[in-house]
Amino acid sequence: MGIAVDLEDIGHLLVLGMARSGIAAARTARRLLPGTRVVLADRQSEPKAAAEASGLEAAGIQVELGREDMALLDGCDLVVKSPGVPQENPLLLEARVRAIPVWGEVEFASRFLSNTIVGVTGTNGKTTTVELLGHIINASGRSCRVAGNVGLALSSLAGDVTAEEIIVVELSSFQLEDIVEFRPGAAILLNLTEDHLDRHPDLEEYFAAKMRIFENQRAEDVSIINLDDPRCRRTVPGHAARVWFSRRAGDDKREAGETAEPLVFIRDGVIRANLHGLDTASAGVRERLPQAWKKASAAASGRNGNSGGEVSGETGSREILDWREAGLKGEHNLDNCLAATAACLCLGLSPEEVAAGIGSFPGVPHRLQEVREVNGVTYYNDSKATNVDATLKALTAFRRGVHLILGGRSKGCDFDGLAREASSASVSEVILIGEAANDIAASFDLIGGEVVMAGDLGKAVRIAAENAEPGDTVLLSPACASFDQYENYEQRGEHFVELVNKIKARGT
Length: 508
Fold this sequence. Notes:
- This protein is an alpha/beta fold.
- The chain has 3 domains: about 10-100, NAD(P)-binding Rossmann-like Domain (Rossmann fold); about 115-360, Mur-like, catalytic domain (UDP-N-acetylmuramoyl-L-alanine:D-glutamate ligase, 3-Layer(aba) Sandwich); about 370-500, Alpha-Beta Complex (Protein-Tyrosine Phosphatase, Chain A), CATH 3.90.190.20.
- It has helices at about 20-30, 55-60, 90-95, 105-110, 125-140, 175, 205-210, 275-280, 285, 290-305, 330-345, 350-360, 390-395, 415-420, 435-445, 455-465, 490-500, and strands at about 10-15, 35-40, 60-65, 80, 100-105, 115-120, 145-150, 165-170, 185-190, 220-225, 240-245, 255, 260, 265, 270-275, 320, 370-375, 375-380, 400-405, 425-435, 450-455, 475.
- Helix 11 packs antiparallel against helix 12.
- Residues about 255-260 and about 305-315 have low confidence and may be disordered.
């Protein structure tokens, strides 16, 4: 349980970690807590954001680089930590000994925001689902802002959103492990698989951090959960109404600690939803929505009547859209669409608005992003696949002729299962890069699989381009973090796109 503190009582604030979230939290504190002394500290003497130090100091923020001494805590009323700062950081340990509250950046930001928040977590699919939600909502004419783990830090929205906007926020385990009162009106759990074991001591702690998204929810909130993932079907904390989504039909009930029936599901390739069940579960959320949202929902209901597509007499479900008409590739994106459908319907959007938004969604950069076809070979950038499960899911989008580029910095995951899958008929070549190349190669050796050691991405693309035949696919889906050779997965993906765009068509 966190130590209680009110924003107006903070005379001295220490922000730890001079990355995107830490800088946003410090700037927000300076803007919205004018009487507070704001100190932004980083243990590195030259962090990547050090170039911003002069601008931060000009704004009235005290910047301390290369310091981790306990004197930083003297007189401190609150510590706000960036998600990248580990729990065993000496300053955090000492802050807790001194009974100084420690909040994550998301917790801090949420104290300034009265807007309805939709939180999205899970091991994989968070970014796609968040961006898909933002796209569907904004395309419907309602107003929505997207923030969180990728892109804009949540703190950046404090004081910069109107009452008519809702916020969709991507939440990592690193952000959720430091919440205190953070409470999303709608919370989505997509899946739970092995990841971040270089930071969390074991899977149970990692899963527990993810489940914290639900713990402060009340009866008038809604939790949207993947019924097909057994790790998500554990005891869910909080008191929100439960909405399950599934790839299986709505009349296929199963036990999930309680008898659970999916309210959003797919049958014969068509996504369907039990609108009555969703309306009942989300009544409290919809009651708290901005007035403009309620008017938009009433107008949509008036335009569309209560049809919402074909009604199934067997289940009372309604057709939303044919999944084959969506532009997203891969089985995992079906889960993302089911979750987004459930959330949007809970927020009062009509089935037609949801279908139109999914159908027009262009996808997310670095996530199964089609880069180019050249010499009959199609290149896909999946740099955001930074764990084994993400890469396994990416492979489901392709049936044959995949030249798979793997590697980077390991996150403590086991590569044996990936080696078995990548030795299947769909993958014709595995090319390894980065620090983890030897570990991945060892997993392939166990099953007699062959790999090509490239070392870096430039050589990997050259090898793939030379070996690929017309109709083949070159897929960058590394199953590893990027920090051995790049600042982030975005930079790695951008480099891949640049390399692919330099490939010359034969005969030119």
